[in-house]
Amino acid sequence: MSSQWTQAHVPDQHGRVAVVTGANTGLGFETARVLAEHGATVVLAVRDIAKGRAAAARIHGDVTVQELDLTSLESVRSAVAELRAEHPRIDLLINNAGVMYTPKQTTHDGFEMQFGTNHLGHFALTGLLLDHLLPVPGSRVVTVSSTGHRIRAAIHFDDLQWDRSYSRTAAYGQAKLANLMFTYELQRRLASRGTTVAVAAHPGVSNTELVRNAPAPLRVVADRVAPLVTQSAAMGALPTLRAATDPAVLGGQYYGPGGLGEVRGHPEVVASSPQSYDADIQQRLWDVSEELTKVEFPV
């Protein structure tokens, strides 16, 4: 498989509808921009409508803005109702939005912020929109994970919301590991349908705003080191774009930069951590996620 896949390899997207979360900045913006420039109808699903409209104005193509706050299940349900009314079919759902290394906070529904936003919000969004993808041949759910799924990462079923103690790094690791486990379990459930597939991607180390919540010493280091080791948001978006558009993609694959340590480079199929493939934990996480969000999937 070529290691030089670029934006130029994105096939024509005319006639396809793509919903991209967190699309007003960084990786999400670059993903939405490329899809729109290749002909897709793109929905920027964002928390801040003003920022979403400003982003939409910078993109050439058929672009609309949808308010979506992944920290609120009420907002997720409201957004889904509007998306379903506006778009009878959806070809691409790209679960890109995320927060990283936040101080101890909870979502509107009382979930730990990183787990609630990165995993549970997207879990609910996907479950509520999935019946608009299932009838569409070639439709995909692409969920963005991170190399952080390897760092101090585990699914802490005994304390999912970090009530007893809190580590920004470990909580982020849990959330990004959950993104992968969700993808793999979703693909197992979709496999018999033969239309929709679930795929994961990660951007390597990209120069985006995601680190803004990190402790001050880490931000200082990141600011100094970033130009030396990171890649642009446009490059970081390529694994997501390949997962979303490459005709050769298979359900359950994971795309990331092909360079040393998956830090940077052109997108290739990569492997995730051994524990991410544990089917028993995947299924247990799925059951808990359905219980917490009150969302049941049609698969």
UniProtKB/TrEMBL annotation:
Name of the featured protein: SDR family NAD(P)-dependent oxidoreductase
Gene3D superfamilies in the record: NAD(P)-binding Rossmann-like Domain
Pfam families, A to Z: adh_short
Domain of life: Bacteria
InterPro entries: NAD(P)-bd_dom_sf (IPR036291), SDR_fam (IPR002347)
Keyword Oxidoreductase: yes
Alphabetical UniProt keywords: Oxidoreductase
UniProt similarity note: Belongs to the short-chain dehydrogenases/reductases (SDR) family.
